[in-house]
């Protein structure tokens, strides 16, 4: 997307953020009269335009309600303001300008790849030559990458396209890339990934994508990012209904997150070794699809009894997490659009995270608040471990009905395969916004990416 953050402009439009308490105290008398005449009281979401004699907009007053320092106001402003260059005038004390600039980029996002119309102009924000803007652009670009990948329909975002994006990222940053696909997954001991993806057509064959960066610098800590890349989830033989299948192009959201986060880590030059693992499959239906009742082998050696083919994400992640453990990581982060139960518990906008590392849990909580990128800790409740124990195999992919806590039991399943070295955290993201409003269009959403980037940056340094 075009860069909507610019260093300077010959004639920028002044932009004032006005709170409910500040509207009545506007220092400019003519502006105060204009506000009173339009009943502008700083209400959140209200916009007031001051124009000159020629009708040109000179200044914009944006109502920010009772939260004048919330930088995410930039999202709806970027989406609603007409084309032009805007410069903050009298920004509220305490406003994080970097986060405001980030919100502006996200608010200007428009996925119009498939629309037969010229691209509309966007409102641009004048940010000067601040050194921090390079980092802001990188973080925003990572979030936009996630959203574009999720928004792209499955016809154009299959396992091969995930591989292509990973390859482009690797080549841009001098990283290695290894791809194991099709029947080679059996030969290289990724049987669970193969079982889930084998029913897809040959050109959409399953694959394990592994990117490595800085791996020769053995004195650096190793971070492993693991992503669920189900490019489309029909539910398999336990087929979903039409409503449940409608947005299943987003089931590769975990893969999009780790690719975006991995690219960001490399761009920032963090002092880490990095491994990014994406298990990419299509959960399709054919005569060779895996079945309820099948018992699957895994890379770790544990067996999985399949109770439901629509719980395929945790199955493919079992092999990817086992591969991550072979690198002896200091920190493992997995992102997955894993359960509807997480949405029942916390809704679509608040992704849960699971870890038994108290320091890591607190770091994520603090980073989520600092970055305005919400996440909520959920428990790896040991009392539910029995729910993922199978009668005929080591584990089952559908938890026993008595447990009810579907997101918790899915995390407990993954914990059986997670690396035992270092720390591990699982994020059960929705990767989707299903409540359209200015700055937040319905579609792909990056959740927890900025939070985890801050955690990794703070923990391992730059």
Radius of gyration: 24 Å
Strand order, biggest sheet? Answer: 7-8-10-9-13-17-14-15
**How many strands in all?**
19
Helical residues, percent: 25-40%
Shape category: elongated
Question: Which strand-content bin applies to the residues?
Answer: 15-25%
N-to-C span: 28 Å
The tally of helices reads 14
Mean pLDDT: 96
Structural class by SSE content: alpha/beta
Uncertain spans: none
Summarize the biggest pleated sheet: 8 strands, mixed
Task: Describe, in plain words, how this protein is organized in 3D.
With 462 residues, the protein is of the alpha/beta class. The protein has helices at 29-37, 73-80, 97-107, 132-151, 159-172, 184-187, 191-197, 242-245, 253-268, 313-325, 341-346, 358-371, 406-415, 449-460, and strands at residues 5-6, 13-18, 47-51, 57-63, 84-88, 123-126, 176-181, 207-213, 222-233, 273-283, 295-296, 304-305, 331-336, 352-354, 376-377, 395-396, 423-428, 432-433, 443-444. The strands form 4 sheets. An 8-stranded mixed beta sheet has the order 7-8-10-9-13-17-14-15, sandwiched between helices. A 6-stranded mixed beta sheet has the order 1-6-5-2-4-3, with helices on both faces. Strands 11-12-16 form a 3-stranded mixed beta sheet.
């Amino acid at each position: 997307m075009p860069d909507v953050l610019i260093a300077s402009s010959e004639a920028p439009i002044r932009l004032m953020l006005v709170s409910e308490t500040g509207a009545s105290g506007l220092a400019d008398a003519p502006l105060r009269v204009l506000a009173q005449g339009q009943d502008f009281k700083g209400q959140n979401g209200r916009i007031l335009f001051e124009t000159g004699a020629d009708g040109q907009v000179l200044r914009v007053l944006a109502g920010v309600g009772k939260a004048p320092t919330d930088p995410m106001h930039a999202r709806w402003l970027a989406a609603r303001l007409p084309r032009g260059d805007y410069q903050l005038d009298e920004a509220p004390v305490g406003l994080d300008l970097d986060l405001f600039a980030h919100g502006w980029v996200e608010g200007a996002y428009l996925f119009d790849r498939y629309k037969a119309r010229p691209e509309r102009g966007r409102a641009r924000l004048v940010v000067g030559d601040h050194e921090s803007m390079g980092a802001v652009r990188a973080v925003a670009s990572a979030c936009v990458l996630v959203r574009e990948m999720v928004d792209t329909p499955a016809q154009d975002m299959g396992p091969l396209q995930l591989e292509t994006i990973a390859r482009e990222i690797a080549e841009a940053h001098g990283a290695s890339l290894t791809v194991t696909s099709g029947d080679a997954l059996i030969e290289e001991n990724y049987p669970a990934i193969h079982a889930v993806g084998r029913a897809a057509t040959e050109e959409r064959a399953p694959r394990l994508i592994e990117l490595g960066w800085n791996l020769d610098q053995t004195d650096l800590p190793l971070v492993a990012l693991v992503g669920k890349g189900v490019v489309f989830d029909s539910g398999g033989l336990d087929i979903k209904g039409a409503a449940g299948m409608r947005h299943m192009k987003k089931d590769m959201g975990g893969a999009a997150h780790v690719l975006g986060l991995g690219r960001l880590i490399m761009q920032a030059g963090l002092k880490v070794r990095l491994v990014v693992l994406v298990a990419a499959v299509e959960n399709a239906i054919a005569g060779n699809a895996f079945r309820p009742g099948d018992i699957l082998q895994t890379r770790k050696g544990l067996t999985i009894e399949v109770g439901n083919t629509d719980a395929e994400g945790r199955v493919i992640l079992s092999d990817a997490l086992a591969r991550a453990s072979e690198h002896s990581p200091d920190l493992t982060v997995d992102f997955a659009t894993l359960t509807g139960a997480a949405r029942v518990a916390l809704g679509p906008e608040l992704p849960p995270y699971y870890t038994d590392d108290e320091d890591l849990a607190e770091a994520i909580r603090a980073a989520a608040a600092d970055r305005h990128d919400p996440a909520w800790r959920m428990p790896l409740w040991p009392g539910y471990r029995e729910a993922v124990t199978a009668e005929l195999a080591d584990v089952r992919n559908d938890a026993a009905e008595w447990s009810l806590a579907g997101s918790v039991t899915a995390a407990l399943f993954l914990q059986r395969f997670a690396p035992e070295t270092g720390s591990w955290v699982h994020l059960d993201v929705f990767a989707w916004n299903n409540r359209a409003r200015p700055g937040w269009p319905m579609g792909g959403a990056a959740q927890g990416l900025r939070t985890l980037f801050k955690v990794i940056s703070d923990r391992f340094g730059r």
